[in-house]
Amino acid sequence: MNIDHMVRKVFYDLLLEQTQSEEDKDQEQKPEQRPDEPPKRKKRKKAKAEPGSINIAPGSVGRGRFKAFVGEAGARAESDPDGLMEDLGVKSAGGNTDTDRVKAVLQRAIAFNPLMRQAYAGASGSRVKLGESETVMSGVKVALGELSTRDGIKFISHTLAGAKNAGMLSLDGAIEIGLHDGEIFIKSI
Asked: Does the global pTM surpass 0.85?
């Protein structure tokens, strides 16, 4: 028996003892449940996004590296947000709601900058039914041009972060960038 095997065995035994003692404590503290009642399940709490945050929906971008220009846009959104907004032609974000302000930033950038016009076909307000629920959600739908949806979502995230860092975009709540019917959909959360 080598030393690694012995250390591993002792470690597992300690973990097993610890979990068993915790289970014993939990059983002592819990009141007895009636046998006719099903066990209660703990409800999972959904984390609330911080106001002003720009989030990407889980599963929208997958894993791996992004293209170089997407990473450069992210770096520029942090280091030179004013210059990025100037290059994109964004001067302000007007609107009553968060989605209106996001739409104003994206429409101006797509209309003014030839690279954005090449990457995206347009941005417009939209109302869609998300998931199996019948709830209608209003937001911004961004049609893609020559850019992949994965890179498009991340690039929009960097663009909006740059507008926020430049002081041109102020959000009352949080927004989430995701996919709906093959197009990018941005909603308030």
From this structure: no
